[in-house]
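Continuing the batch. This is chain 6 of the set; chains 1 through 5 are on the previous pages. Same settings as before, nothing changed between runs. Recording input and output for traceability.
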Amino acid sequence: MLILISFLLLLQMADCVSKVELSVSCANLLDKDVGSKSDPLCVLLESTGGDKWAELGRTERLKNNSSPSFSQRLRLDYHFEKVQNLKLGVYDIDNSSSDLGDDDYLGGVEITLGQIVSSKTVTRPLQLKKGKPAGKGTITITAEEIKDNRAIELEWEAKNLDKKDTFGKSDPFLEFFRQGDDGKWQLVHRTEVVKNNLNPTWKKFTIPLQTLCYSDLERPLKVDCSDYDSDGSHDLIGSFTTKVSDMQKTAHGSPVQFDCIHPEKQKKKKSYKNSGVVSVKSCKLITQYTFLDYVMGGCQINFTVGIDFTGSNGDPRSPNSLHYMSADGLNQYLSALWSVGHVVQDYDTDKLFPAFGFGAKLPPDYQAAHHEFALNFNPTNPYCQGIQGIVEAYRMVLPQIRLSGPTNFSPIINHVASIAAGAAQANAAAQYFVLLILTDGEITDFDQTRDAIVRASRLPMSIIIVGVGPADFKAMELLDGDDGVLRSTTGESVARDIVQFVPYRQFADAPQAALAQSVLAEVPNQLVSYFKTRGLDPPKSQAAAKS
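Output for chain 6:
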């Protein structure tokens, strides 16, 4: 059982990885062949750290072509939660060797996969080396996600199931199996258990068509109906086989019913008919959009930063302070900011990020503590140019403020939520908001913060909290809600999980990308779940539907 659970978890994790296909074309390549044009080929490499690159694929070689459009696509895995640095190099191939060392280099480009998918199509000048253009040569890269985004929405019911429990009726549930290419049955879905009921109706569920039947509407499926036992020794009530094309008949008004057959009973009794009848109550094929559908369709991810300047961080002039700058000009706050912001900035076209501080007293009077002040001291325009702009504003403001308190999260959450609420009024999947809070964890307004989070859970918004320093962060873990449903002070539960918390110390000795992978891993599903709940398709899909 443990092995099966581990396998299913791995399968679930693998399903979260999107496959992306890149198509490449070039224009005005350098001519390296005497008396003819070059014979170009494009190679795709991904950074493995430092100066090391791993080759992921190559296009075909096109003879005598200075403006090639390659038909061979380049495929790779896409991970939102990390920066994937890519290098595309174009070579003039004049021999049959796969070694590119003896071929002429026509130019290349370094780019992140995030930059490509957020723009969908990118054109860049080719360079022979940094700062040296390859003549007038350019490269155009287009990204497309490889997937079947169809899903099937099913609702099932049963009548007159066999009674399996001695002191009650049966507790039935369904298990769905698809037939693999090897003929073996593979479990793909299990319904909930309906207690003490011989005529159950199970909850409607949605499953990707690729998961259910490899997107093959004629692929055999097996359905087992069993009686649940708490010790795991479930009793089979009966089974039947079907296929999606049969289930779809219910959409046309035809009853789709199956005799639930128990093979042993069928062998023993000639008069045996069935152990109940299981029916498809509804069957509907739907489009299931992914994170990439929204991003590549035009949805902008808006990134906001909030930095904790409360007294519990310690005097920034002291080496013991969490705000103390090391010899390399960094501290835990800046390291966390660089790690997460470096990923998110690729998905915001203008690269202008509002940045705020909280918990400090400001010049010139240094009177009351401010719980939401612009990091650049410009309240009417709190935007910083890129992550570097936030870093510069942080370094500028740090010597001028006095750390104070209390530590209130709710003002900055409510600030971003008010903007997200305005975007939600547009009734389009055009904008999503990510708030990054960097804090030492000594939260004061816990009740107001959870109220703010519950309200924000109904908006296009996610909250990432990175805990800096040695605190135990128990309050932060409660806000995360991974161990239970977060509720407001009035008992209202969150509409969806929008908070992700991680303590920075867990990543202190890890590669910089590790923190970003951890805190950003949930954002794609949070974005999709919000727009799905609102019934909003990606912007370009909506436009196509209207045309």
